[in-house]
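Appendix B, record 7
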Amino acid sequence: MRFRGAAGLMAGVLAPLALVSVALFSGSPVLAQAVLAQSSQTQSPFSQPASPKQVKTYLHPISKYLLAVPVGAELAERGEAAQVSIRSRRGYIINIQTGDANPDLTLLQMVGKLEAQYLGAGKPWNRKIGSKPTKAAGLKALENLYEGANTRVKVMIVRGMKTDFVIIFFAPAESFRKLVVDFDWFLANFKPNPADLMETAAAPGANRPPALDSALPKRFSRSGYGYTIQYPGTWEVATPSDDTATFSGKKGTDAFQVVVSIQNVRPPAAKTPAEATEKVLADLKASLTREATDFAIIGEKPLTYRNGDLSLAGRQMVVTYTYAGQRYRKWALVLPRPTGTVTHIWSYTAPDVRFKEFRPFADAMLKSWTIQPGDG
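C-alpha cells (predicted):
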C-alpha cells in the first residue's frame, strides 16, 4: 500500500469563548468566536420557511453578496473589509470572510492553510471528521467538519468568479445536529454577487483534470505480470516489487496523491480461484483496519470481468479510511487468474475530496486493463 503527502492529525483544545482569527485572506481576518452557549429551544425556527416579514436581509457593502439573517440572530461587521459575524441566541455563530478569488490556490490548498493554523495540538480544532466537494449557491465548494473541545465546526470554502468565501459555522457538539439545520437554511438563502455566478457560463471546464487522452497514453506490459494496461502519458509507473505496479501523477501535480495499483497475490491456504478471491479480500480489509483508522466499507458487491471468451468472477468494494491525518477513498477489485490461485488486486486510491475529480482517469485505466490467459 502506498500513501503520499499525507499531513498528520494532532490533538488540540478549543477554549470556551476563545476568539480565533482566520487569516486566509491577507490583511482581512475574520473573528470566529466559538459558541458554547446552550439553548432551551428544542426545534429550529428554520425547519420551516420563515415569514418574509421575519427575515432580515443584508447586502455586503464590498462583495455585494446577499444574506438572509436567521430569525433571532444579530449581524455585525468588523474591519475595513467588513467581515461578517452572525450570532444567534440559539447558541451558534456564523462567520463569513471574503477575498479576491485566487485561481492559483485550489480549494484543497486553502483548506490546508486553514488547518495549518487551527488543526492540531494546542490549537482550536483537535480532529477532522470529514471533507467533501459540494456546491454552495451554485458555486464550487469544499465542505469540512472539525471537532474542538465541546465544539463542532463546519467550514465551507467557496469559490466564485470574482470572490473566494470562507463560511464557518460554530455550535456546541451536543446540539450540533439540531442547529446545523439553521446553517443549511442560511446557505440555501445565500446569494453571491451575480458577477461571481458567471463562472459556470464562462468556464464550464475550469478546475477539471484533463481527459486521459490529452497526452498520448502509455502502455504497461511486462512478462510475468499477467496483464497489460494503459495509463496517462503524464503519469509515472513504479514497480516496488516483482508482483506490484503503481501508477500516479508526477510530484508537484494534483495527481501526485492519486494512485492506481495492481498487485498479484497468492494466498497460501487457497486451493481454488474462488477461495483465493475471498482470502485476498479478507486480508485486504484486515490490512486497512490495522494500518489506518476510521476504516469504513461504503459498498461491496460481486464483479464479473469479461474480455472476449475470458470471464472471471470476483469482488469489488469502496472503502474510506484515515491515514496520517488524511481521509482517503479506495475502490478495489479482487479478481482471480483464469487458473491457479494467483489473484489480482486492482485499486484506485485518492484523497476523499479528490476521488470524484480523478475518477475518470481510473475508469479509463480499468477499461484498458487486459488480463492475459494462462496459469497463475
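Remarks on this record: The chain has two domains: 19-202, 212-371. The CA atoms of residues 12 and 126 lie 4 Å apart.
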